[in-house]
Write a structure and sequence with these properties.
alpha/beta; 11 helices; Cobalt-precorrin-4 Transmethylase, domain 1; five-stranded mixed β-sheet; 3 domains
Length: about 270
């Protein structure tokens, strides 16, 4: 597994270049994208595609080739392979077959954005791309429920530029407009930008300036005085005075914007203590 630049081609390491030169073939997410890097570094190693749509069917052939002594370098279009990119299933198959694997570390947009954001670096949680449409709000509500259960972490996503504004609006709906946030755009490239502020401020910026390029989105952990967990328990205790556990959970979930399943589990726990 060979990490490649996320934008600036000068960020490739000597070990990465040596690995690409010495491999029998380079497994690429998109050979056209990788070709630009290979041409810049005069690397003529043959390339083969390995992406989400063909990875599973190609695994038996690739494992057989590896067992026969072939050496492959696995790359994604940019950054560290497997991190929101193809290759996981092949790596799992190689491990199961007892084939030696190694990783050549290097650029990664998640870590680059985290270090530039000004948000707490530890702990952090990378969540890939947010779901689309209604599923996005449900996913954010589940994360907020985790916070109300005591989880505190900087949260990081990749996002497409045409969806960024809608995603920021959904984050505000669930986490509130005052939550600290940052958006990294075109990291390591000529027009690199890091927009920092509250969710409301970041949204305002991108409503006025349409986002372009590769996007990494971050929000900070809840503030130390966040009362979410206490609010949930208080509302449930009040509802349980006059409602069944099921009805109390449905009532509270409706206005506190948390998954019904999560609220029901907490209501059940509180009812047992009464």
């Amino acid at each position: 597994m060979v990490a490649t630049p996320i934008g600036n081609l000068s960020d490739i390491s000597e070990r990465a270049i040596e690995s690409l030169l010495s491999a029998d073939a380079i497994l690429c997410e998109d050979t056209r994208v990788t070709a630009k890097l290979l041409m810049a570094r005069n690397i003529s190693t043959p390339t083969r595609t390995l992406h989400d749509h063909n990875e599973q069917e190609r695994i038996p052939f690739l494992i057989q080739q590896l067992e026969n002594g072939s050496r492959f370098a696995l790359v994604s279009d940019a950054g560290t392979p497997l991190v929101s990119d193809p290759g996981y299933r092949l790596v799992r198959a190689a491990i199961a077959a007892g084939i030696e694997i190694t990783s050549i570390p290097g650029p990664n947009a998640v870590v680059t954005a985290l270090t530039l954001s000004g948000l707490p670096p530890l702990p952090f949680m990378f969540l890939g791309f947010p779901p689309k449409m209604e599923a996005r709000v449900r996913a954010f509500e589940a994360l907020r429920a985790g916070e109300q259960a005591g989880i505190s972490s900087t949260l990081i996503w990749y996002e497409a530029p045409h969806r960024l504004v809608d995603t920021l609006k959904d984050l505000i709906e669930v986490f509130g407009p005052a939550r600290e946030a940052a958006v990294g755009r075109e990291l390591t490239k000529r027009f690199e930008e890091m927009v920092r502020g509250t969710l409301a401020e970041v949204l305002s910026h991108f409503e006025q300036t349409a986002p372009r390029g590769e996007i990494t989105l971050l929000i900070g952990p809840p503030a130390e005085d966040d009362s979410g967990a206490d609010d949930l328990d208080r509302h449930l205790e009040e509802a349980l005075e006059t409602h069944s556990v099921k009805d109390a959970a449905a009532l509270v979930a409706g206005f506190i914007k948390l998954p019904k399943r999560t609220v029901y589990a907490r209501a059940l726990e509180l009812s047992r203590k009464r």
